[in-house]
């Protein structure tokens, strides 16, 4: 969708023309495949993974793979995926079971061979890299966190975390220092000598996270890391990850089938179905401008006020001065009380303090009651 269409949608929502300033519009730029707003850390192009006997060969072009999938002779676990993941972003891959999330993560991490296509880490192609080189990349530049924690049961917390560092022959002093640092970072101090069986699920996953971070990777792959945990602990670890990320600014590829988790964590989210990426966008973009009904269905069940910004449901200013002003990019949930207390419309201001719109309690109520897709048929689908 281009900017013109997007502005059209705002008009429909607000009931009147509302030309947002450039920098605010940029946040809403809706393309089905939004690009990162920063340098690219990891990218894949024309990425395919087929399963089945007929797929066990080299392919010359993508047409051959398409033909195998279309004729039902192979399962298209990944089909023609193009992605660019930005430096320091949490990039969430989300979709229902069987949509290809794990296959994508495993192909990107080079744990399994894709059938076709290329993957670039810091601009360097990883396909065709000699095995020893690839091993080096995996040991020094990539960290992995798995759903089942993948801890060795007979090793203590310290030894589990130190394992990848020992495998790559780091010197003992730096291992000690490194392990102590990550143990403190993930809040496991005092538990150094425990075995995995003496830890709760949440604590075990903290060990998994610490082990991945100890490698000091530029890139972290997390495959449903919190899915085995109960909801409260899961929430706690989500918050922990956000806290860690604010400090560490790693590039993370995070797989989940839980849309609310995707929205909470993702700088951008890729929504997958049948091995294909249906949409890539920031959480606000995904919920306010879903590319299709499959994506829209995910957005239907979440609390929009925590995702949608004030600017998104604003109308044009009707006066030049407002007693109460609110940053236009603030989430509705964070601004709602102030708007309610104002007793009338509040002014929305951009980062320069310029007036860019108006918001009142009625607009918030409309969002909460009718969702973004209007009332009546199809609402909240
Ligand atoms: N080793 C395999 N052999 C054959 N087919 C496979 C294999 N691994 C995955 N598939 C198929 O590839 C498709 C994508 O699977 P994948 O595990 O990537 O999905 P997913 O989105 O991660 O699912 P889940 O959330 O259930 O883990 C599915 O149709 C699956 O059945």
The unique ligands bound to this protein are: adenosine-5'-triphosphate
Count of distinct structural domains: 2
Assigned CATH class of the largest domain = Alpha Beta
- Class inferred from helices and paired strands: alpha/beta
Distance between the termini: 20 Å
Strand order of the largest sheet: 6-7-8-3-9-10
Described by the principal axes of the CA atoms, the overall outline is globular
Question: What is the rounded Rg?
Answer: 23 Å
Q: Using the 3D structure, state the CATH architecture of the largest domain.
A: 3-Layer(aba) Sandwich
Kindly describe this structure.
The protein has helices at residues 3-14, 22-28, 62-70, 101-108, 131-140, 157-167, 172-185, 201-214, 231-248, 259-265, 283-288, 293-299, 332-342, 361-370, and strands spanning 40-51, 75-86, 90-95, 116-121, 124-125, 142-146, 219-223, 251-256, 268-273, 276-281, 325-327, 346-349, 355-359. The chain is α/β, with parallel strands linked by helices. The protein has two domains: 3-30 and 303-370, CBS domain Like (Alpha-Beta Complex); 85-107 and 129-299, P-loop containing nucleotide triphosphate hydrolases (Rossmann fold). It has a six-stranded mixed beta sheet with strand order 6-7-8-3-9-10, with helices on both faces. A four-stranded antiparallel beta sheet has the order 2-1-4-5, with helices on both faces. Strands 11-12-13 form a three-stranded mixed beta sheet. Strand 11 (325-327), helix 13 (332-342) and strand 12 form a beta-alpha-beta unit. Helix 6 runs parallel beside helix 8 (201-214). 40% of the residues are buried. Mean pLDDT is 86; it is low at 1-30 and 374-381. Adenosine-5'-triphosphate binds at residues 51, 75, 77, 95, 97-103, 257. This is ATP-binding cassette domain-containing protein. One of its GO terms (molecular function) is ATP binding. It comes from Aquamicrobium soli.
